[in-house]
Amino acid sequence: MQLLEQHFDAAFAAPDGIKKLRELILTLAMQGKLVEQDPSDQPASELLMEIEQEKRRLVAAGKIKAQKPLSPIEADEVPYEVPTGWEWVRLGELEPQFQNGISKRNGKSGVPVTVLRLADIRENQICSVNTRKILLSNSELVQYKLESGDILITRVNGSTDLVGSFIINNDSSSQFAYCDHFIRMRFPYSGYNPQFLNLLSKSRLVREQIESKFVTTAGQKTVNQTHISTLLVALPPLPEQHRIVARIDELMARCDELEALRVEREQKRLDAHAAALNALLGAQEPAAFAEAWQFMTQHFSDLHSVPKNVTELRKAVLQLAVMGKLVEQDPSDPPASELLLEIEQRRNYLIEHESLRTKAETSVSKDEQVFGCPPGWSYEKLGNLAKFIDYRGRTPDKTSSGIPLITAKNVRLGYINRDPYEYLSEDEYCTWMTRGFPRLGDLLITTEAPLGNVAIIDISDKFALAQRVICLQLHRQEFNEYLRYLFMSPKMQEILLSLASGMTATGIKASKLKELSIPTPPLSEQRRIVDKIDQLMTLCDQLDAKIAGQTSMQSALLASVMAAATPASAAPTHRPAPARAPAGEPVRRGPNRPRKEVTEASSEDEEVPVVRRKPGRPRKEPTEAVSAEATPVTERRGPGRPRKNPAEPTRSIPEATSTTDAIRRLEALKIERATGTRQVGLFESEAEGS
Q1: Which end of the chain is more exposed for a tag (fewer CB within 10 A), N or C?
Q2: Is 374 found in the same domain as 490?
Q3: What is the 3-state secondary structure (H, E, C) of 128-173?
Q4: Rounded to an integer, what distance in angstroms lies between the CA atom of residue 587 and that of residue 590?
């Protein structure tokens, strides 16, 4: 419990903390630790005997068929101890009536009836919007009609979470049937709360059993009626079932409130970060930029405590860099116009001596200068800064080994990933590589699938270049680092997307790439920009690592909280008796079920059950019949139940109170810290809070 008090906030701040909290509530409920037991409740064992007697009567009357007996519950199947009055049972011992859904998709005559499909189940509830009706005959309606309290079980689906899920029908006014993707489960006998069974199906114990029974065919997972019948469940007395359902409903509503509170807090953090970045990016005057930057630095830790904000920070760094706002301009730097003049002289030399064909317009209008133009900066078209090597037109023949082939799939945003590995033969390489050879330090940019990824070539070995990747051989290679970051910036990515065309896969033509207007700082400022970006990207890497470490720690603490709140029970050391037999066969006692005493001789018309001896047990001598009032009741231990001292007064399980009290106090602290006001705790009733 001290572990809960020390680390509650950190543990439940984990990404899946609320989900785990819901699981904890269900786990405590199904272990009998969520509400107190009432000694006056009719024990589940008596309920099961009543069901058995009623079933035997109906079988004898010919109204139902005798079912194949279920396998007995072995001692090693029981996962934990249950309170007094509870029983471990197979779900089939509650005698559910199963019916698979209707398979036909239409009818020629009959009554129009809404037939529920998988699409009509949303958030584990029946949704009657946009349903489909088909014509059913009267006999089909009787067979497949849903009644209030019936439970639909998803029989087949590709999702692990959906298959075997229970959906209770609480609608008594609508007329529904259901398709063959479902199994209907109906309980003709009273004594259990359908809402409790629905909640039971969501518990970790039942879900693990269901998932272990999956039959998978062509990617579809399936369960059947037998799988559901053999599920092992812990059954409390009926009044306690009602109390558990009411308590779970209350706590789940509190979880909803807590989740909404956390979502609201996270949204405020995202909004504050977005506002701070917008102030930085939109600042027109130095004073406004300085004020926005000061706010960012003062609240840096709070603003960047979630991965999404770190991702946005990376984008903002790149955007500020290519707008000339990340580093200061130095008046002593040679202006970019001088650099562009040198590049022009180099380009003219290549045109004259090496037949360079890559070129673009020589002027850039004011409207095209979308990144701004700080002092010393200039603009130039991309086609005038580099030679384009483009291998569009066809796909080379690939082999399992040989010369590496770099494709668009290898070029990521900022780097080259050699996976997947593809190759050309030596002959194919010589035939294919006729338009130019990429060099170490050249820039690669993808033109489609994906569009706009850019990387600097860091491969010293010979390799081939595939289509959908253009190699930019810059006339001044020192330009490459800055240009890579420019193409990675949000604004440039937006421009590329606006120039793209195509229906199935959007791509950009080389002719449009050549006409891109490139903001060009002085070469020395480019180096300062690159150094600053590298420094800040390292900081972002550290922030991501810190957040990942905190998340991992929170998840570990959450696991500790779960383990502390639901300790493992000692394994039982005895084996239960076999399960009961159907009508017409000797009666076998199920686990946790007391032996029925014979009090009076039965009438000639009444069938007398025969008690079967276990192998190796001596035959008991008959005794005189005694009255029910004089018969002492001997309570038998079921599997997982400790031996009770007769002198010890009846009381609820000690663990239940301490666990509930601890979590109640801690959740009160949680909400109090989050809102700054005193509220009723998550595990606290309104009466207790007042």
Answers
A1: C
A2: yes
A3: CCCCCEEEECHHHHHHHCCCCCCEEEECEECCCCCCCCEEECCCCC
A4: 9
Secondary structure string (H, E, C) spanning 583-651: CCCCECCCCCCCCCCCCCCCCCCCCCCCECCCCCCCCCCCCCCCCCCCCCCCCCCCCCCCCCCCCCCCC
Output b/e per residue, 32-41; b: 16+ Cβ within 10 A: bbbbebeeeb
In a domain? residue 436:
yes
Cα–Cα distance for residue pair 657/83, rounded to 1 Å: 13
Which residue type does 204 have? R
Helix 490-499 to helix 307-322 angle (10° resolution) is 80
Q: Tens digit of pLDDT for each residue in 207-225?
A: 999 999 999 998 899 999 9
User: Cα(444)–Cα(618) distance, rounded to whole angstroms?
Assistant: 88
pLDDT at 12: 65
Q: Residue 466's domain is classified under what CATH number?
A: 3.90.220.20
Q: What is the pLDDT of residue 532?
A: 94
- Preceding omega of 420 cis (within 30 degrees of 0): yes
Distance of CA 304 to the CA centre of its chain: 24
Q: Which residues of 356-389 are buried (b: 16+ CB within 10 A; e: fewer)?
A: bebebeeebeeeeeebebeebbbbbbbbbbbbbb
Q: Report the first-to-last Cα separation within the chain, whole angstroms.
A: 24
Q: Residue 567 has what pLDDT?
A: 56
Instruction: Indicate the pTM of the whole model.
Output: 0.67
Q: What amino acid is encoded at 210 in this protein? A: I
What DSSP element (H or E) covers 245? helix 238-282
| One domain, residues 365 and 218 | no
How many domains would you assign to the chain?
Answer: 2
Residue 639 CA to residue 35 CA, distance in Å, equals 22
